[in-house]
Each structure stands twice: as structure tokens, then as C-alpha cells.
Write a structure and sequence with these properties.
- Helices cover 39% and strands 12% of the residues.
- The chain is built from 14 helices and nine strands.
- It has a three-stranded parallel β-sheet with strand order 7-8-9, sandwiched between helices.
- Strand 7, helix 12 and strand 8 form a beta-alpha-beta unit.
- The longest helix has 19 residues.
Length: 358
């Protein structure tokens, strides 16, 4: 994909895909042809597509739709094909790889296991997984002015992969497969094609808005990468064991009366569609429910979230130590809005738990 048919030679090497795969049909998509494709084949997603403020978000949604409709291999423009992708032909699973290791902190700091690369992917046509991705795009559309990697990009794709109930539908690989230049990643590689690198990615980041150098941002990024490398390179099984208190591990469980009351703070906005799943996960906790107090911080929702919360509180209020909802309004000034929200949560937390010190 590119904004027009005229791709600068410095951007990537799209011709390499044709050279390495002369018997494959090659398709190039610019802004006009991609939108026409969306209008013809995914008219229900066209309002989402048109409302995205960034072209990369349209490109992200577009690539998922292309793979769902045609199948085959999608590749970013800033890539180079290194060998024939013929081994991918006829595979009935979705072929993905992880992003390079230095990018994984984006997923890890959000509590995810891995960051999946969406710059080059392969899929059979019509795979139901892509409907899951479309659902997440709809869910995140209200945050479309936020971070691209969350609203349409690798974080969203990674969440869809993690939540998909049939993990056997994926052939997941290390970043060597599509995402890095040969020799850039460190063995051992994993996946069905652990001995093959089909393509390399230049990481031109042509869609990223260029910013002035920010030393603080560079320091934070550097620190995250070093922490991730340390945690992965220097911890072995014995190191992990030494961090566990065996007395606590093998202690006899306390009675319910001896356990502290715990408050779970849950911010939510436009979450009516996911509150049920969130509540089901809380109900599945093995901590005694009469020692849990749930505090939902809700505000500015336009999908009936407050009504859904009221129904949950009415139905399950007696199951827990308490369920509360704090509602904030957009009409307060921005800073005051957040201060009041934080103060309200802190106040309610102090009232409902016995384990908070001033």
C-alpha cells in the first residue's frame, strides 16, 4: 500500500515480491483503490474506515480486510522479499511472527505476553479470526484519536490473537520470519519455518509523525528496552525461585475472616459491550467475594455503560463486600475532571477498606 502509485525508491522494494514470486498475482493498493475495495466488499466497515484520522489506521483496517477477502500474503511497502513465499501457499492457518525484541515492551507494559507483527502476514481467505479483529476495531473506534498501535495496529492484533479460543489456528514465529533483516535477530528461532526468512522489514516508519528530539522520551525508551533485555537474558529458573517466599507459598490458607478486604478499581468508558466479560472474570477469582469491593469509575460514556453498571450492581451487590460506581462528567475543566475522579476513588477506597494507611 502507498498513498499513490508512485512509490519512492527509498521507501521499500515492492518489485522484489514480484521477482521472487512470478507465478503469484501481485496487487498494489493506493488510497483510492483501497477505499473502493472497502466500499465494494466491506460496506459495513466503511464508516469506520472513513472516520479514522490517520491514513495508517485506514491501512491497518484495510490489510485485515484484504486478508479476510482474498487470503494470501500482505506486506508493508517498506519490505523486501528475500525468497519465494510458495511454502505459504495452501496453508490453512494464519501465519504471523512476533515484532523484534526491542519492540516487545509495548506489549509487556500492557500486561500482554507478546507483540505480534502486522507488517507482513499470511492467511487463508475467509478465516473467521478476522471477524474478531473487525470487532476489536469497532470497539476501539471511539479511541481512534489515540495511539495507533492500540486502535488498529500491533497491540490490537496481539490482543485478538491472545483472545482467540483456537490457538491452533495460528502458525506463530519469532521475528526472523518477516520482521527483521537477516542476522539482526538472535537465535534460536521458533515456528514451522524456523530456518527461513521470507522477507525483511526496513522499519522506515513513514507514517509516524516526525517529532523534535526529546531527550526524556529517548531515555524512557532506552530504559524500557534495557529492562526487557535484562528480564529475558539474566533471569534463570533459580533466580525466579529465589524471588518466591516459600513460607508464603506453602502457608495454610487463611479463613475468610482473616483475609483483608481488597478494593478493585476499574476505570471504564463506553464499555457496555465488555462489562459482562469483565464481571465474569472477577466472579472466577478464587478470592472470597465477601472480601472484595468493586469500584467502577465511569464517565463520558455514550453506549449505555452507566445503565449496564446499574444492572450489575443491582444483580450482584449482595455477592461482594460492595459494588460502587463513581461517575465523572465532561463539563468539568480537564485538570479538575481528573483530580475529582482520583479524589473520589481515593476517598471511597479509604471508606471501604481497612488496609489503607495515610
Amino acid at each position: 500500500m502507498w498513498s499513490s502509485p508512485n512509490v519512492p525508491t527509498s521507501v521499500g522494494d515492492p518489485g522484489s515480491w514480484q521477482q521472487q514470486n512470478p507465478n503469484w498475482k501481485y496487487c498494489f493498493w493506493d488510497d483510492q483503490t483501497l477505499r473502493a475495495f472497502m466500499a465494494d466488499h466491506f460496506p459495513d466497515l466503511l464508516p469506520l474506515f472513513d472516520a479514522y484520522p490517520k491514513k495508517i489506521q485506514q491501512a491497518d483496517l484495510g490489510r485485515y480486510c484484504l486478508l479476510s477477502h482474498f487470503g494470501g500474503v500482505y506486506a508493508d511497502i517498506d519490505t523486501r522479499c528475500l525468497t519465494s513465499v510458495e511454502p505459504l501457499a495452501g496453508v490453512d492457518r494464519i501465519v504471523l511472527c512476533e515484532e523484534p525484541r526491542e519492540h516487545q515492551h509495548h506489549a509487556l507494559r500492557r500486561g500482554m505476553q507478546r507483540l505480534v507483527f502486522n507488517g507482513t502476514m499470511a492467511s487463508p481467505p475467509g478465516h473467521p479470526f478476522w471477524s474478531k479483529v473487525f470487532d476489536l476495531c469497532r470497539l476501539m473506534h471511539s479511541s481512534r484519536d489515540g495511539d495507533v498501535i492500540e486502535t488498529t495496529g500491533p497491540i490490537l492484533l496481539s490482543a485478538a490473537v491472545a483472545d482467540w479460543p483456537k490457538q491452533e489456528d495460528f502458525l506463530l514465529h519469532s521475528s526472523h520470519l518477516f520482521a527483521e533483516r537477516p542476522g539482526a535477530s538472535t537465535p534460536p528461532y521458533f515456528g514451522r519455518w524456523s530456518d527461513v526468512t521470507f522477507s525483511e522489514h526496513y522499519w522506515n516508519g513513514s507514517w509516524i509523525r516526525r517529532r523534535k528530539t526529546n531527550i526524556f522520551r529517548h531515555m524512557v525508551t532506552y530504559a524500557r528496552r534495557r529492562i526487557h533485555e535484562y528480564n529475558n537474558d539474566n533471569l534463570d529458573l533459580e533466580d525466579i525461585r529465589r524471588t518466591i517466599d516459600p513460607v508464603l507459598l506453602h502457608a495454610t490458607p487463611q479463613s475468610d475472616a482473616e483475609l483483608p478486604t481488597i478494593a478493585i478499581l476499574i476505570p471504564v468508558r463506553n464499555g457496555a459491550a465488555t462489562l459482562g466479560q469483565n464481571f465474569e472474570q472477577i466472579l472466577n477469582l478464587d478470592y472470597p467475594k465477601n472480601r472484595l469491593h468493586l469500584i467502577y469509575g465511569e464517565g463520558d460514556s455514550s453506549d449505555g455503560t452507566s445503565e449496564a453498571l446499574a444492572r450489575l450492581i443491582d444483580k450482584h451487590g449482595a455477592t461482594f463486600a460492595g459494588i460502587s460506581s463513581i461517575t465523572t462528567q465532561r463539563n468539568s475543566p480537564h485538570v479538575e475532571h481528573h483530580i475529582r475522579y482520583a479524589a473520589g476513588l481515593a476517598s471511597l477506597l479509604c471508606e471501604t477498606t481497612s488496609c489503607v494507611k495515610r
